[in-house]
Hints:
The complex is a heterodimer of chains A (115) and B (107). Chain A has 115 residues and is mainly β. In chain A, 0% of the residues lie in helices and 49% in strands. Chain A has no helices and 10 strands. In chain A, the strands form 2 sheets. In chain A, strands 2-10-9-4-5-6 form a 6-stranded mixed β-sheet, with no helix packed on it. A 4-stranded antiparallel β-sheet of chain A has the order 1-3-8-7, with no helix packed on it. Chain A is globular and about 40 Å long. By secondary structure, chain B is mostly beta strands. Chain B has no helices and 11 strands. Chain B is globular and about 35 Å long. The interface between A and B is medium-sized, with 18 and 21 residues. Chain B: Residues 1-89 form the Ig-like domain.
Amino acid sequence: QITLKESGPTLVKPTQTLTLTCTFSGFSLSTSGVGVGWIRQPPGKALEWLALIYWDDDKRYSPSLKSRLTITKDTSKNQVVLTMTNMDPVDTATYYCAHSTGVAWGQGTLVTVSS
Amino acid sequence: EIVMTQSPATLSVSPGERATLSCRASQSVSSNLAWYQQKPGQAPRLLIYGASTRATGIPARFSGSGSGTEFTLTISSLQSEDFAVYYCQQYNNWPLTFGPGTKVDIK
């Protein structure tokens, strides 16, 4: 059974850097073809892919957010970390991590950006 | 970036009726199209991938069709638990993109 869980702060101030960790089980990020990604959803709005990292360390970023995002993996810990710099109130959203096939998602974590 | 559009924005259906949801891509995504169901306060759940293959555990009343730029999700007989928001998503090109969603509510 594949499970994923997001962790990180629920409140960040404008201009701060957000760091989110996805801890997963039931699969390995060293297996060929496997990836883990981050998706966000502002309240009442649609879903948006942010970043994706594959087993071979290939990384993909949303073009509109690329300058602010960094995704890394720690295969030994079964974790993927997303950092987003220069947070703004418009970045308030539920942040999800998910298996690259979409077959499993974390429960999501609501991050509020406010001073 | 491939833009996904969905219609209608809201679909009002009575339990037991058939629901047909549409999704269109701004350019061909072949069959690299997934459908998700999302209920309030929950993460999306994968229903369909490859445009027409049901994910594990998804009831047979959900079916997907289409290829290229035009796709359809059909729910043959709506159950109470099917009232939710449905999103299509292409995974043919990065960035992966979702449609804006179709809300299926009770008529």
